[in-house]
Amino acid sequence: MKQQHVELLAIGAGPANLALAVALEEMAPDDLVENTLVVEKNYDIAWQRGLLLPWTQSQVSFLKDLVTLRNPRSAYSFVNYLHATGRLDEFVNLGTFTPYRLEISRYLEWVASSLPRVRLDYGRQVVAVEPFREGDRITGWLVRFADESTVHCRDISFGIGRDRHVPEQFAQLPDERVVHSTEFTAKVSRLDPAAVRRIVVVGGAQSAAEMLWASYQQFPQADCTMVMRSIGLDNYDSSKFTNELFYPSSVDTFFAASPEARAQQLQEIHRSNYGGLAPGLLDSIYREMYLERLQGGRRLSMVTMTDVADAQKDGDEVVLTLVDRRTGRTEELRCDVVLLGTGFSKRMPAVVRDLAAAIGLDEIAVDRSYRMVLPETATARCYLQGVNEATHGIADSLISVLAVRSGEIVTDLLAGRHPGPPPAGPDPGAAGLLLETLPQN
């Protein structure tokens, strides 16, 4: 069993911790940067891996990349990525502020491979994070991985996002019959287009619509039905007034607001991110349904204002029990596979909840600098990214605030940093561990 000893461990090599790594490279002293490790459970980097479809676009301007709003002169900007890869002229000629999702994913890969000092390790699945105590003080964290290795660190940053939400009525379906949006591209590619004749998509927002449209194209013999609780699909609320709430500067106002004001803002802005669709996709789906009706077909359909009360496997079929919210009537809908555009849990990720329980916290709270509120005796720090909508606003889970947020976290890290090497980790001899310090180059 191998143990590493670092000052800062960042879990997850997604946009949040990549932005943090860049901010460290640009703002922090060498000894902190060279004692930072980013770990990723996958063996590569991909943005929105489960829905990395070739025609999908970001809904956010390319200027809201990992660095530009914090440091417009940074070498890690999206524009410099285009320049470095010889694609700047083509992107400018495309005439859009919203790049294809595939291009953003490649930008993230480029950033990760360009970091000169922060180290990234791939294929490392975290299974537990535990507080490391010296007496009554929490002075660090012990992170355990699926390969039985460990990392001891003084400070930690979670950039893993929220856990996926699978409603309980679907939990008992066989794995090959139910597909969450986070695994769509991987699992659907294994299905036989000739064998799949009935697909049901549950959900009424962007991810559900993307799965519906992709399935309609990939399975030309299949009937594709979308089941949603709402009255129908709607565009994102993307007015310029609404978009001002995604400014990084809006975080201060939201954090200082009363709980009632925060709740009102989150409710009113819901359709700007979670409850709507990109206008182009909505228009494509509607036009296709129109053309089908015009030509006497009905392969693409929608069931609105309906709940899925139950889902059971019956032989080679999945049987969904639908309840009409208008009349209360119940009916069955049979299909071959169910695609879930049901989003993510509103709770903190399970690994964070387990850590809070080990510390003895009654609730998980963060301060303005995204640092978990710990007992006063704690000298270790824990930063939570992308899971603080309730206190930092709806943009917290989006790329809009990444550049500025990463700078704020680094500033907080430096303000409370103790000079010198990290505190000693657990006795390696007691557990038969081999201590490994990161190389200083």
UniProtKB/TrEMBL annotation:
Pfam families, per the entry: Lys_Orn_oxgnase (PF13434)
Alphabetic keyword roster: FAD, Flavoprotein, Monooxygenase, NADP, Oxidoreductase
Domain of life: Bacteria
Tagged with keyword Iron-sulfur: no
Pathway in which this enzyme or protein is active: Siderophore biosynthesis
SUPFAM superfamilies from the UniProt entry: FAD/NAD(P)-binding domain
Enzyme class: oxidoreductase
Catalytic activity, reaction form: L-lysine + NADPH + O2 = N(6)-hydroxy-L-lysine + NADP(+) + H2O
Cofactor: FAD
Enzyme Commission no: 1.14.13.59
Family: Belongs to the lysine N(6)-hydroxylase/L-ornithine N(5)-oxygenase family.
Name of the protein described by the UniProt record: L-lysine N6-monooxygenase MbtG
Species name: Streptomyces cinereospinus
